[in-house]
Amino acid sequence: MRKQSGIIIYSPTDLIRYLASPFASWLDRYHLENPGAIKPDEQSEEDELLSRTSDEHEQSILTGYKASSCSVLEISKDDFAAAQAATLTAIKGKRDRWRACRRDRKERNCGNRERHACGKFIQQ
What we know:
Layout: E1 2-4, E2 7-9, H1 12-20, H2 22-33, H3 45-67, H4 80-107, E3 113-115, E4 121-123
Antiparallel strand pairs: 1-2, 3-4
Helix pairs in contact: 1-2
């Protein structure tokens, strides 16, 4: 969770935290809006390990996508408005390409199961 130009931007981790504990989520927001009013707990070694492992896993997946024939677009998180515009442009621009890709997968389908880019098998 961060604030940019007066707008609070939530991350997937913030949403997961809210589902696990609305109070913990409220404390995070309170700390964001009132810096210094409360002191958050230090991150435990286990939390640091989970965070680092998660980042390494995401980087590994991204590297795999870049090495494959997949088209990968990386959008900077520094400017929320620019990132939002770039995301919407990418989604709109790839819509026809996605439909063509799905059509191609159906034509190449073997045994009614296909490996998705993430490595999992999907049922057609």
